[in-house]
Amino acid sequence: MPDVVNTALMQGGCGKREQILDAAKRLFIEQGYGSTSMDAIAAVAGVSKATVYAHCDGKQALFAAVTERECRRVTARMEIPGDVDTLALYPALRRIADSFLDAIFAPESLALLRMVIAESGRFPALGRIFYECAPGLTLASVVRYLERMRDRQRIDMQDCHCAAGQFLGALRGDLHLRAALGLPVEREALAGQAEAAVETFVARYAIQGR
Amino acid sequence: MPDVVNTALMQGGCGKREQILDAAKRLFIEQGYGSTSMDAIAAVAGVSKATVYAHCDGKQALFAAVTERECRRVTARMEIPGDVDTLALYPALRRIADSFLDAIFAPESLALLRMVIAESGRFPALGRIFYECAPGLTLASVVRYLERMRDRQRIDMQDCHCAAGQFLGALRGDLHLRAALGLPVEREALAGQAEAAVETFVARYAIQGR
DNA sequence: GTCTATACAGTGATAGAC
DNA sequence: GTCTATCACTGTATAGAC
Fold it and tell me: Is B177–A135 a contact, with Cβ atoms under 8 angstroms apart?
């Protein structure tokens, strides 16, 4: 885990920092920012409160640090598979769809999304950081993929950016909002949504002669 | 405003209750649940803290009351227009799209969405109430519209529920998430997204012979 | 850096006078 | 119903010893 070492070195050097960030992450997600006390964070981390303050400048800075670390973690999940260019359009879109849905319906992703949306009003920079680390990154990947397919005459499309947003939006459908609100989502419905979105997209944009 | 009168009568009878709910709504949205104190609510409402407690059983109950009232308010925005059946498929979907986007991108809707998502982990019932009052209501309306169109041989569709989710998801695209995260959304991009979603939907599902 | 101990304002909630 | 005054407790943040 070289990342841990780097982070620790950057900030001054021991595993306690990770303990504190882990504890803070758990409590911020479980209880929300406002209801989480620095006492509780210190207790869960197994350190004293003064140690918490030695590692970060107050509660807001700690919250920002937690969010940035989590964003960096989910980023890895958000890149679309690298082998899609070797596939035909339909199976490639299926792969992208599966990868995307796995990423955004993962419990950790949903928890982070809730936390960021919850506090984005009070921490304006947070929304942008999260967007660019997660959904914005996937969107950009899909846009690039669509541009390549357009260059190869596989699809007929003017605005790849808009089409990519439309595709990812159709994949989310109603179910992502349901999941973000804590409502149950059946795996069958998710698979059906993915298939319908891919089929519709192909029906609309694929160039007939294959 | 008969609704105000009804609410007041139901709960025991004076404008103070509305003042308290208004103050609580503002502070919960601005500061979040955990960071909002009952003192602050009482001060903004212009009453004493004891009066707040006379009108509701504690902070959680007050939060639930605020959310339910706001959900009821946005519900009115969420019904799709009643005259869509007299229109052809394409203009009807455009109307539905415009109505839907106006509703979900309204600042009040976004603020409520943030507040509900933020606390849905701690108040499990909240997510369901909100969903059924707002996005679930629209979804059901669109499902019924699509079923009528299917009965009239205007569209070829197996699963109207899935298709409706897909349509609304494509309308949201990437922009609704951006807005929920507090990022700027250009009106042009929104209009483009709407047009693309409707065109794609028609291209996929409309029966050719009109 | 880490801990124990503590300062002191602010928290949700209530009692009792009017 | 409404207020003032107050409860017991927790909040963020810091001082000083090791």
Answer: yes
Residue A9: count other Cβ atoms within 10 Å of its Cβ. Answer: 10
Whether residue A200 contacts residue B166, with contact meaning beta carbons closer than 8 Å, is answered with yes
Q: Would you tell me how many other CB atoms lie within 10 Å of the CB of residue B6? A: 10
| Distance from C-alpha of B3 to C-alpha of B9, rounded to nearest angstrom | 10
Q: How far is the CA of A85 from the C1' of C13 (A)?
A: 63
Domain residue ranges of chain A, discontinuous segments joined by +: 2-56, 75-205
Q: Smallest Cβ distance to A200: which of B30, B139, B166?
A: B166
Helix, strand, or coil here: B206? strand
Measure B11 CA to nearest chain A CA, in Å: 28
Architecture per CATH, A75-205 = Orthogonal Bundle (1.10)
Backbone angles phi, psi at A17, to 5 degrees: -60, -40
Nearest CA-CA partner of B163 in B187, B135, B144: B144
Q: What angle do CA B128, A117, A162 make, to 5 degrees?
A: 95
- Print pLDDT tens along chain B (210 aa): 333 333 333 344 468 899 999 999 999 999 999 999 999 999 999 999 999 999 999 999 999 999 999 998 888 888 788 889 999 999 999 999 999 999 999 999 999 999 999 988 888 888 999 999 999 999 999 999 999 999 999 999 999 999 999 999 999 999 999 999 999 999 999 999 999 999 999 999 999 765
Distance, CA of A64 to C1' of C16, in Å: 46
Distance (Å, rounded) from C-alpha B202 to C-alpha B210? 11
Cβ within 8 Å, pair B34-A32:
yes
Please give the CATH topology (third level) of the domain spanning B70-205.
Answer: Tetracycline Repressor; domain 2 (1.10.357)
* Interface probe, candidates B117, B198, B208, chain A, greatest A C-beta count within 10 A: B117
Side-chain half-sphere exposure of A120, counting CA atoms within 13 A: 27
Q: How is domain A2-56 classified at the CATH fold level? A: Arc Repressor Mutant, subunit A (1.10.10)
Q: How far apart are CA B77 and CA B90, in angstroms?
A: 22
Q: Do the domains spanning A2-56 and A75-205 agree at the CATH topology level?
A: no
- The whole-angstrom separation of Cα A118 and Cα A32 is 8
Residues facing residue B155 across a β-bridge:
B206
Q: Is the CB of A12 under 7 A from strand C?
A: yes
Residue type, A27: L
